[in-house]
Amino acid sequence: MEQEQMKFAHNASKLIQYINDSGYHCTFGEAYRTPEQAAIDARKCIGIKNSLHCHRLAIDINLFDKDGHYLPETKSYEKFGVFWESLHEGNRWGGRFQHRADGNHFECHTIHTPEQILVPKLYYDYKLPVVCGILFLVFIGIMLTIATFNRD
User: Where do the domains of the chain lie, and which CATH numbers do they carry?
Assistant: First the structure.
């Protein structure tokens, strides 16, 4: 894992240099996420439990133009996403996520345990937030059924 993290950090430094060389500025958003925070985010359907942030293989970068204005739109990051993906075959830019573009997210898939491949695949390819929403509705239905039976 340490070797993968070193390669990721090296590529992240290349990305930051490329951003600066392109006339932009940046700051770090989230670089490391604790497993506890990842679990909280997963329960809220705003993240995944086994986030690559937890393995120090993902980073969120805040992009600013030359005048210091924050650029939150995914399209502002596209040039940098393409560059990121060119640095390593496992690099993935969040602007390409199908469920919800995350333009400031840059990650590297270098770990290959089944859980670490399956969980992101479910999240990114099968729109886990939709699944969480359905499960929430099922839960509400169960609770209403229980409340109805308890009332009688």
Answer: 2-127 (3.30.1380.10)
